[in-house]
Model the fold of this input.
Amino acid sequence: MLHKQQKAFSNITAKSTIVRNGFFEKAEIDSSKNTLEIDGNAKISQIDLSKDMIIIKFEKFADGRGFSLAKLLRQNGYKGIIRAKGNLLVDQYPLAIRCGVDEVEISFAHAQHQPKEQWREALTRANNNYLDRLMLA
Amino acid sequence: MYQYNQFDRHFVANRVKQFRSQVMRRLDGSLSEEEFRPLRLMNGLYLQLHAYMLRVAIPYGSLNSKQMHQLAYIANKYDKNYAHFTTRQNVQFNWPKLKDVPDILNDLAQVDMHAIQTSGNCIRNVTSDHFAGASIDEVADPRPSAELLRQYSTDHPQFQFLPRKFKIAISGSPKDRAVIRSNDIGLLLKKDKQGNLGYEIYLGGGLGRSPFVGKLLKGFLPKADLLPYIEAIMVVYNLNGRRDNKYKARIKILVHENGIKKIKQEIEENFLIQKKNFKQPSDKLISAINERFKLPNFKQANIDDYKTELKQNAQFSNFIKNNINEHKNKDYAIVSVSLKNIGETPGDATSDQIKTLAGLAKQYSHDELRISHEQNIILPHVHKSDLSGVFKELQKANLATNNIGLISDIIACPGMDYCALATARSIPVAKQIAKHFNELNLEEEIGQLKLKISGCINACGHHHVGHIGILGLEKQGKESYQITLGGEENLSMNIGKRAGPGFSSDELLPAIKRLIKAYLNLRNNPDESFLSSYKRLGKKPFINALYPKEEQANVA
Done:
């Protein structure tokens, strides 16, 4: 089943869903936004941090490079929107948020398989974690 | 002992709740095995050859009597009345039913235990010296650092989907009983010239199908920099580790292919970012952790009776000779309890034995136990006046085997008897070798010898670092056992060299017998260990013994 999902996810067309704060929204194309799309191979030193939005592609859910890239962008002072796009499972949503991702773009098929209730529930797990506690306690 | 606070308890209870709903969805069919797989692996549940297997974390190998009692209870209630202690200081239940697993996890949570991150491509249970906090030779107790790393790595948002699993080991003693250089990261606590504590760091060690000795990454890292430095290593690995080939995905391959110099440079560059961004844990949090690992209140008592008993009771003095190590407190001893009873499975203990050990820990060892990577159980703080009482209780429970460090104290992986990956049996081989030398009463004569057996190339039995290593493979549908020689643990870690062609399961014991016989003839004196003889003489005489001329002629 997961393999089927992967196929479905990698086939992202204009028909996709944005997950923002645990809610589903239609993916709108805002041409006024100055965006950049990167994948797991991106080198942080070569990324233009003046973009309004940086989209990080998650090719496979087991490939966790996007999490470190998002965090590195934030550590390098990037203040724009970070969108994770592609193969991100609902269980990974809280991890992405904690790494500095603002929103997730998933395919319709994916959104049907993992409905919004699951994303909203997952979001509650973004708080109250070991790392925050270590750093803030 | 580290004790959970409200936060830890809440975290574990939530995970149990989450997993229970996942298991229910699996049982009613709304999750397929394929979908369920990554979820169960996040909770330490494997699907083995015959059944599910649950791997429970014992952080840095330390636990108390209440936790030990609960393991006995679980083994009895949900499993076949035994548990298996592993080479990574974990405990495994081999026969749980899927429907019971949430209840098992719940029972574990009652005593602050869990199975989180005992599987998957994340930072696994941090391992440590099994004599931590007790040994006379340690610079500092490694467990507060290990606990800090546990909290740091548990549910770390960046590192749950690494290229491959990631193992960290820490030792507080130059004797390095944690075999740190066989881990992805090895940490050694040490002091600089001013007496400040810090870490020597090794990177890219590992056993498995391509064994590497961890390379020196940093001679001295101040203690306060530990987390940002580990974070830097992890970021470099997460972004650069190979993801195209599972067998080349460990950090050892990244280090091997790029060289330690280049990797170090990237780590140091990233470390500057981390150091700037990283909020250090508060002193309050650090001292709360340290507080949990304070030395127990050692008692004072007369040890004259112990000295007398040593002289009069040969069985007792034999046990003391092999199974005791020197404690920080001169009136105390560290007792190693061998789970290598002759004829039984290395690392297995029955519910009753586990209960006995829990009771002994409570009564005689300041409520502390440790699991060693050599699959034995340690009572770290036993007053010498109590040793005789402990020995008698161990005898009654069939736990007084006095073979620590001897040829029958074998590390063996579960092998084909349990494991889905195995290519040969390991447990029967271990039993056969132990039984042979025990019956001939030769173990003492042979002396210190580490014999380690893996049932496949993944090397869970650590054969690469055995003075004698045995690797079970499959050749044309039959088991074939390769022997390696000269492997070594500790800071001077060495990978054993393959001696020659493999042996069938029938030929293996005779081959080991020839090898041991040769050693006994070749050694300078009874104090020269197998490894020392091997180092002095080189491999040739030992290989000649393994492959005598007439047999070589037959093969040809």
